[in-house]
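I hope you will forgive my troubling you with a question about protein structure. Could you please explain, in whatever detail you think fit, how the structure tokens follow from the sequence? Thank you for your consideration; the sequence and its tokens are set out here.
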Amino acid sequence: MNTGPQFVEIDWRGRRVSIEHQWIAPERSLAPLIVFLHEGLGSLSMWRDFPQRLCEAAHCRGLVYSRPGYGRSTPRAVEEAWGLDFMHRQAHEVLPALLQALDVDTQAHPPWLFGHSDGGSITLLYAAHFPDRIAGAIVLAPHILVEDLSVASIEKARIAYLETDLRQRLARHHDDPDSAFWGWNGIWLHPPFKQWSIEAEIRTITCPLLAVQGLDDQYGTLEQIRGIARRVPQTELLELADCGHSPHRDQTDPLIAAVTAFITQQSAGDKT
């Protein structure tokens, strides 16, 4: 069974921040833990039932949370802009603090990380920085550099937020949709961010890694995951047809099957 959404406080950037989170199948106390990291406009609720379905298929526990500024977590302050290192801060500061606050012993029982889009990039940064505190990683449509395609699509999202019902739709999932949208949109369209890249940093990743992308992804080309594979030799790639930026929505069943097989195979290898 799943718990309902809960809240825990962490110290971050000089203030107390409340983090919305939910446990999936916590009764499987000896099963691997998968931590889900959402996309740039995502939240706990925007995953819908995908984490539960994956955990059921893979016989895992799950932890889903909303990053600061998203969902029901503490919103971004009105005057606060994400910095060029915002994903590094999430990987190196927020996620470790959250896991510690929730008594997840990442040294004795390293979790799996499952990240989508910005959450995929944060997953890669965590894996590179804490190689002994992660069992493995699955990344969907991650970013390792900024492409023109990404910027163009994010500019379209800005117009949609200002001119369509996108704000109202996001308000179903975020207490403060302006916090979520402008934090994400502002940094991605900030001209210096065009030079952002984690291509060099990910070379230190040693854990098992599955990188997934749709062939019709409007926010990135296949160079994103193929670039990962060139730098991280143990990477397995999954390129999905008829799939956009959200493989967990566009190709749910094939993705669950592939991830379940990957985790099962890697977990079996750990025991031999």
